[in-house]
């Protein structure tokens, strides 16, 4: 979700001096009134007319661009801002608007330069700096973004957006370092320790414990890991073991992998920024952060509550409304989620899928089918929608229609359930040999999944420190 | 037994007239129950001993058995009970299992101590049947590492014959059922296990919020069931290995029997918690093959195992083929598997409308009985979630009212729970079914964790009826396994129904407006086919197996 794209209404307030007619002056006044009233869409044709009538007038072109941008016609607005900047390269509203248009269009890299020039011209412009930081973060330059968010926290220390952005930037640097490590040293103690850290974040303490121990097996001198294990002990009700483990932390820090160090350090910086955010008065960003954290921990219903709290701060925000609906869906509260998806327009393939799948989970296969059909029509590669549509058809007594969708979804059959459904559908359509083969596939997958679970179950024990008195 | 062509054509006529009698009935009569536990003298509270450690056994009791222990024609009530935890000792009377004698008129008297049925250990399920063919209904009580077989002495007392009979206590047994798998006239016993106990003391829940919950079943390794063959001399032989039953480990919850493929041998359906169910097809040679997956009853249609709890195995759509109704947890629906014949079932949960009606509910006990005597078996479910803190984690409720689903006679059901008087939200568990007061309407008894049991007297307007009490001669004395047909309706004698529970009170048929039954056909486990003609309605009819 992007924040902070609301800018003051910066349109050209000059009059049409020397206008060709009273009619144009009237139109200009009317357009200005519409802009002031927030009726940007209606102002666009008036400005188009004015630009045609008075070609080359940068003020009118800028206003046209602004009206377009503010009515959501970002792509259309860009050439108008560029035209203004051609004749007036220092025009800050045009630069800012050009950046915003690119940002809204999901082209953050193209937004960076216009924003940078605004910030260079006015270092105290917090809005512009905030937008620049956002663009940098979205463009995959989190370290650069962090510099600007950091400055922003100095300029506006009570601005939750700045602290949220700063935390997100640091988090992104940390994640990038983690990914780097995954590529370069996937089996290393460093990787295992970072994976364990992520399990702790998700409260998967048994798994974290296993991974920390694995890391220590590979590198007994690894710094910080004993402390992390001690923390796991404390969180799982073993304070005596925690004290023992803590005492094993090496006194001298050993050599540390640079990616590991960066991931850890920036992770801590992110935590510090987020902690600061939580000390500020309640804000949208505070709830957003909590919601994102809870989602990452699989607590989707709690996340939905946080998104609702954010929505209470900014009522009507469609992005927040969507987050509420998606969290409810992920939290399997289909009854609450299903009506929410319907309020969004247009219904994207994702929304159609979630609506249809919710209805299917509510045992409303008949009602689910049109949404799921729309989803696969719009995005034939959406396998989840194929899977749901197949089951919906089967339930609705149309097994022959179910078969192709279940077949299409079979690559995502992680637990064998789709093979089972396919077997039933083949059976119902008089294809016993296919049914038998699908059932065999089901059994193979189940066996494989069980073997994986057995392997994972080795991670399931939290035991005392080696040689510790129990 | 009649086999002539004349009879065959007469039989067709009879069928037509019966169908007409049933079809002529108006819209289904409403079902209405009233909880009369308080006034009936049944004051049983299921003491499950909940602990902060959330030991799984605490949420799993308790079975209910209805059977006529003193042979006075009135079905009596038996409740299993918990024990102190972790000792698993019944160290106070509040933990006693309880037997209530039916005094008639919906009045009951606690006769536990006279009957010597207080029990021992942490009890779970109950299974009633006359295993020694002496005319007195005996009782098996399944428990946590403590099974007990009680022989009914016929004088109002029971004797613990567990050891003498060769019954073992080898794990945490939840349920059991009696059936004559080899049709030798002696009832055999199938004991269903959940897992080994005690289990690992695992913390499940949210440590940071200090919310500890019952662990997911996946953390418990299942156990195979134990099949005991009745030698006919009061002793049993563990035939789990040679019968093939021991090859299948499950987290067993309940058992129901029926001859689903009509080969004359009773088959066994076992629900498993969060793993595929078992359907043990009786090969008729003393061995079983597990066929749930190919038969289509291992899993609901979405292909993922659910927390299958209670079960009943009866023909709900009057096509002569026993179907399977199962309870499960909120978000899973209560699966209904319709028997298509030739050994195949289809998941009819959605098409029967039970899917949307049950998707928000969690159920334990269940039974397919014709509560309004209109000729179509309705569905009762004893509802509650397994996790007492579920509301803090999911959009589900822990305590729920029971469910009553009216069979509309067209393959679909309607939720009539509230109108049927089921509005009390409790942690319901086991349930048993019988006409307790001789009015021909099936009443229901439900156990509740930590709260008084419910005795639901059926008060709704109802059609005509008949209850057949079978007396086997070549077959087992209870006639368990006998298949009975009245017109287009089929039922069979079994006491294994619901969750960890037992209902041993004859075979009930609702008859709508039918004034006289032209023909009743009974297929005994011995193979004998017995036909009764022009039978009066609205009676409890004792039928002795013809020679």
Summarize the structure.
With 470 residues, chain A is an all-alpha fold. Chain A contains 24 helices and no strands. Chain A has helices at 22-36, 40-53, 58-70, 74-87, 92-104, 108-121, 126-138, 142-155, 160-184, 189-201, 205-218, 225-235, 239-246, 258-279, 284-296, 300-313, 318-330, 334-341, 349-361, 365-378, 383-395, 399-409, 417-428, 432-457.
Explain this structure.
The complex is a heterodimer of chains A (470) and B (547). Chain A is mainly alpha-helical and 470 residues long. Chain A has 24 helices and no strands. The N terminus of chain A is likely disordered. Chain A starts with 21 loop residues before the first helix and ends in a 13-residue tail after the last helix. Chain A is 72% helix and 0% strand. Chain B has 7 helices and 40 strands. In chain B, the strands form 11 sheets. A 5-stranded mixed beta sheet of chain B has the order 5-4-3-2-36. In chain B, strand 24 and strand 25 form a beta hairpin. The longest helix of chain B has 19 residues. The N terminus of chain B is likely disordered. At the A-B interface, helix 21, helix 23 and helix 24 of A face strand 25 of B.
| Classification by helices and strands of chain B | mainly beta
Rg measurement of chain A, Å: 28 Å
Return Rg of chain B in Å.
Answer: 21 Å
Class of secondary structure makeup of chain A = mainly alpha
Strand proportion of chain B, as a percent range, falls in: 35-45%
Query: What does the average pLDDT of chain A come to?
Result: 91
Mean pLDDT of chain B: 93
Helix content of chain B: under 10%
Q: SSE order of chain A in H/E notation?
A: HHHHHHHHHHHHHHHHHHHHHHHH
- β content of chain A, as a range? under 5%
Please state the overall shape of chain B, judged from the principal axes of the Cα atoms. globular
Number of strands of chain A: 0
Quaternary state, please? heterodimer
Total helical segments of chain B: 7
How does the major sheet of chain B shape up? 5 strands, mixed
Overall helicity of chain A: over 70%
Low-confidence stretches of chain B: 1-25
Number of helices of chain A: 24
For the largest interface, the chains and their residue counts are: A-B, 35 and 28 residues
The largest sheet of chain A is: none
């Amino acid at each position: 979700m992007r924040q902070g794209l609301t800018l003051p209404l910066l349109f050209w307030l000059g009059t049409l001096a020397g206008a060709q007619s009273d009619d144009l002056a009237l139109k200009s006044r009317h357009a200005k009134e519409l802009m002031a009233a927030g009726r940007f869409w209606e102002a666009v044709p008036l400005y188009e007319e004015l630009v045609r009538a008075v070609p080359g007038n940068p003020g009118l072109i800028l206003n046209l661009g602004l009206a377009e941008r503010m009515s959501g016609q970002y792509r259309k607005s860009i050439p108008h801002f560029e035209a203004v900047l051609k004749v007036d390269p220092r025009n800050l509203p045009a630069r800012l608007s050009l950046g915003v248009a690119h940002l809204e269009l999901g082209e953050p890299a193209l937004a960076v330069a216009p924003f940078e020039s605004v910030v260079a011209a006015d270092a105290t412009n917090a809005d512009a700096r905030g937008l620049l930081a956002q663009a940098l973060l979205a463009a995959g330059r989190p370290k650069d973004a962090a510099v600007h968010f950091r400055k922003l926290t100095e300029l506006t220390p009570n601005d939750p957006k700045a602290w949220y952005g700063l935390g997100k930037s640091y988090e992104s640097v940390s994640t990038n370092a983690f990914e780097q490590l995954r590529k370069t040293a996937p089996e290393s103690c460093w990787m295992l320790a970072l994976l364990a850290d992520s399990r702790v974040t998700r409260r998967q303490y048994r798994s974290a414990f296993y991974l920390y121990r694995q890391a220590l097996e590979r590198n007994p001198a690894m710094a910080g890991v004993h402390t992390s294990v001690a923390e796991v002990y404390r969180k799982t009700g073993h304070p005596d073991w925690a004290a023992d483990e803590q005492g094993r932390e090496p006194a001298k820090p050993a050599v540390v992998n640079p990616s590991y160090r960066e991931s850890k350090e920036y992770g801590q910086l992110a935590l510090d920024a987020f902690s600061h955010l939580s000390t500020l008065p309640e804000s949208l960003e505070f709830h957003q952060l909590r919601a994102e954290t809870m989602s990452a921990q699989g607590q989707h219903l709690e996340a939905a509550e946080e998104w609702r709290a954010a929505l209470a701060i900014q009522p009507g925000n469609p992005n927040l409304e969507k987050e509420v609906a998606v969290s409810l869906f992920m939290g399997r509260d289909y009854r609450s989620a299903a009506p929410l998806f319907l309020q969004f327009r247009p219904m994207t393939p994702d929304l159609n899928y979630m609506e249809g799948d919710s209805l299917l989970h509510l045992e409303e296969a008949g009602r689910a089918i049109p949404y799921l059909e729309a989803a696969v029509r719009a995005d034939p590669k959406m396998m989840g929608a194929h899977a749901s549509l197949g089951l919906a058809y089967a339930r609705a007594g149309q097994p022959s229609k179910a078969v192709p969708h279940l077949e299409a979804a079979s690559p995502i059959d992680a637990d064998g359930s789709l093979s089972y459904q396919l077997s039933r559908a083949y059976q119902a359509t008089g294809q016993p040999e296919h049914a038998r083969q699908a059932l065999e596939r089901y059994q193979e997958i189940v066996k494989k999944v069980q073997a994986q679970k057995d392997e994972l179950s080795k991670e399931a024990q939290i035991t005392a420190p080696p040689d510790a008195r129990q | 037994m009649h086999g002539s062509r004349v009879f065959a054509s007469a039989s067709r006529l009879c069928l037509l007239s019966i169908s007409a009698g049933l079809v002529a009935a108006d819209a289904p009569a409403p079902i209405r129950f009233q909880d009369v536990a308080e006034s009936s003298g049944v004051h049983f509270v299921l003491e499950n001993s909940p602990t902060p450690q959330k030991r799984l056994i605490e949420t799993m009791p308790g079975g209910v058995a209805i059977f006529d222990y003193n042979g006075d024609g009135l079905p009596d009530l038996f409740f299993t009970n918990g024990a102190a935890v972790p000792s698993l000792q019944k160290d106070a009377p509040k933990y006693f299992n309880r037997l209530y004698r039916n005094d008639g008129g919906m009045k009951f008297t606690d006769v536990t101590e006279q009957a010597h049925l207080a029990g021992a250990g942490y009890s779970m399920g109950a299974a009633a049947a006359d295993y020694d063919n002496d005319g007195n209904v005996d009782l098996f009580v399944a428990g946590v590492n403590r099974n007990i077989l009680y022989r009914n002495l016929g004088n109002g007392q029971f004797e613990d014959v567990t050891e003498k009979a060769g019954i073992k206590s080898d794990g945490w047994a939840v349920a059991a059922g009696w059936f004559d798998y080899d049709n030798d006239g002696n009832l055999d016993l199938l004991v269903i296990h959940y897992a080994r106990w005690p289990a690992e003391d695992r913390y499940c829940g949210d440590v940071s919020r200090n919310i500890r919950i019952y662990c997911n079943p996946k953390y418990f390794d299942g156990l195979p069931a134990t099949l005991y063959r009745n030698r006919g001399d009061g002793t049993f032989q563990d035939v789990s290995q040679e019968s093939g039953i021991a090859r299948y480990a499950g987290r067993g919850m309940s058992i129901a029997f029926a001859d689903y493929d009509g080969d004359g041998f009773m088959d066994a359906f076992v629900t498993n918690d969060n793993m595929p169910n078992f359907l043990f097809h009786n090969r008729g040679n003393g061995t079983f093959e597990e066929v749930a997956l190919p038969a289509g009853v291992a899993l609901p249609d979405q292909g993922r195992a659910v927390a299958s709890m209670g079960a009943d195995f009866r023909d709900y759509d009057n096509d002569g083929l026993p179907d399977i109704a199962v309870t499960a947890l909120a978000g899973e629906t209560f699966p209904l598997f319709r028997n298509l014949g030739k050994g195949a079932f289809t998941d009819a949960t959605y098409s029967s409308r039970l899917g949307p009606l049950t998707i928000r509910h969690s159920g334990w006990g269940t039974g397919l009985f014709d509560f309004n005597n209109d000729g179509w078996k309705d569905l009762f479910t004893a509802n509650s979630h397994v996790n007492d803190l579920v509301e803090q984690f999911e959009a589900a409720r822990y305590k729920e009212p029971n469910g009553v689903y009216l069979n509309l006679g067209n393959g679909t059901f309607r939720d009539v729970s509230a109108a049927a008087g089921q509005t009390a939200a409790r942690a319901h568990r086991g349930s048993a079914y019988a006409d307790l007061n001789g009015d021909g309407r099936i009443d229901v008894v439900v156990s509740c964790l930590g709260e008084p049991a419910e005795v639901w007297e059926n008060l709704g307007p109802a059609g005509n009826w008949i209850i057949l009490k079978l007396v086997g001669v070549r077959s087992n004395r209870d006639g368990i396994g006998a298949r009975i047909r009245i017109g287009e309706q089929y039922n069979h004698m079994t006491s294994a129904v619901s969750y960890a529970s037992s209902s041993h009170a004859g075979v009930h048929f609702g008859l709508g407006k039918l004034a006289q039954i032209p023909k009743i056909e009974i297929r005994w486990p011995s193979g004998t086919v017995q036909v009764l003609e022009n039978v009066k309605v609205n009676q409890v009819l004792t039928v002795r197996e013809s020679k």
